[in-house]
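Message: I would love a firmer grasp of how sequence relates to backbone shape in proteins. Thank you; the sequence and its tokens follow:
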Amino acid sequence: MTIHNNDLLNTDNDVQSSDSIDSKSIQQREVCGAGEGWMAEIKEGQTLRIIDTEGNQAVDTLFISCADTAERYSATDTLAQNQKLFLEMGSQLFTNKDRVIATITEDTCGRHDTLGGACSCESNTVRYSHDTYPMHSCRNNFMHTLATHPIAQKYGLTVRNIGPNINFFMNVPITPDGSLAFDDGISAPGKYVDITAEMDMIVLISNCPQLNNPCNGYNPTPIELVIYE
């Protein structure tokens, strides 16, 4: 469920995370419920603020060019161009056509993952047990949003537009043997990240419903999303 402006969460942390934004510059402000999907258009020069309202919540995110929906965020190009394994303030987000689609312009968390990917029914069974297959997943969120959201219909988006994603606020360290670990988050209530669009883009989010590892503290919670100029 997406909660619109009139139904925003009213907590001190939400106020602190949004009070630096001039209210006149806010174009859209919503809350995405725990475990739900969300989609929006962001114009070049606008900024999306993702607020981790209660802390320790992973936010799986994809970016797609409005001008050419075959052009989308690329984890491999982004890692190669930034020469870093994690994303942070100042990181430029590159597409599969080696162009910058967005830049992280403010960040109170400090580090974000782009290696761990999105959870799915299939990956849950491999990592955990066959009994987890029916559990809700980020890939389910992506597919459902692409199948039902008006923006997806406007641009003709399908499951073919799903690719490797960013996991904002998620802690996926590299172990000494080169493996990925899914550890407790390093975020906290009210932490946020600002992503400024370098071209007109579509943002597709799964507010991760994962219950089998600590990326959400085993308790998925809502996030707040603010688009401003």
Q: What stands out?
A: The chain is about 15% helix and 25% strand.
